[in-house]
Amino acid sequence: MKWFTFLVCLVSTMACFSLQTPDIPSKTNTLLTENQNTFDHGLWHDLLQKHVSNQGKVNYKGFIKDDKKLHDYINQLGKNTPQPEWSCEEKLAYWINAYNALTIDLIIRNYPIESIKDIKHPWKQKLWTLGGDTYNLHDIEHKILRKMDEPRIHFAIVCAAVSCPKLQNSAFTASKLELQLNQAATDFLNDSTKNSISENDLELSKIFQWFTNDFKQSGTLIDFINQYTTVPISAKAKIQFKSYIWKLNE
């Protein structure tokens, strides 16, 4: 493992231990496997396999037909919120999957639409109750996930737009999280429709502009990007940012 990757992992682990889970009434975690703290995301995984292509295209009409299963999964999330004894990986997987499932739910509540931005204040709507607390997408992203100091979450959570990272058609799980986050980062950075990369010139997604500091925890932005691209990038490469396309990712 490169020194930069090691430092990012170390910082992420420390942040996970220090992360304060919102005050939640004690509940029986009926979906945790015996003697483990792993929440079963199988229902979400099945929905993703059925309604999301390998390229990340989402069949929202299919999700509408399966809305009962989606709501069952969201209800399961609400009854099995992260507990202090959960590992960093378990918490990350939970909140990444929650963000993506709730985004799908937001879209199908308002479908048909051309863009998530056609919805009034889409990221501020507190529509979901998890463990007795009401959440919106903004709070999950900025008050929970970003505070875990894992920059690769920006390639895992998806805002239903063409310029977003593709929605993976497998649920994130604690046991596979490192591989899944690396794959999400690699997929996104090497997708020429999202990022154009050469040794001396970069035309990057605005995600790298909006969240620049998240990617500079242990080096420069180019240091971070170099971990996931096949083209070695010069430290002096010129950086520009692409326009963001908010059209629905269907």
Quick structural summary:
The protein has 9 helices and 5 strands, in the order αααααββααββααβ. Strand 3 and strand 4 form a beta hairpin.
What does this structure look like?
This protein is mainly alpha-helical. Mean pLDDT is 89; it is low at 1-14 and 17-37. Helix 4 runs antiparallel to helix 5 and helix 5 runs antiparallel to helix 6. The strands form two sheets. A three-stranded mixed sheet has the order 3-4-5. It has a two-stranded antiparallel ribbon with strand order 1-2. It has helices at 3-18, 42-51, 60-65, 67-79, 88-110, 137-145, 177-189, 207-210, 221-226, and strands at 128-130, 133-135, 196-197, 201-204, 238-241. It is built from nine helices and five strands; from the N terminus they run H-H-H-H-H-E-E-H-H-E-E-H-H-E.
List the helices and strands and how they pair.
Layout: H1 3-18, H2 42-51, H3 60-65, H4 67-79, H5 88-110, E1 128-130, E2 133-135, H6 137-145, H7 177-189, E3 196-197, E4 201-204, H8 207-210, H9 221-226, E5 238-241
Parallel strand pairs: 4-5
Antiparallel strand pairs: 1-2, 3-4
Question: Can you tag this structure with a few keywords?
Answer:
250 residues, mainly alpha, 3-stranded mixed beta sheet, two-stranded antiparallel ribbon, 9 helices, globular
Major sheet strand order: 3-4-5
Average residue pLDDT:
89
Order of helices and strands: HHHHHEEHHEEHHE
Number of helices: 9
Molecular shape? globular
Strand content: 5-15%
Largest beta sheet, briefly? Answer: 3 strands, mixed
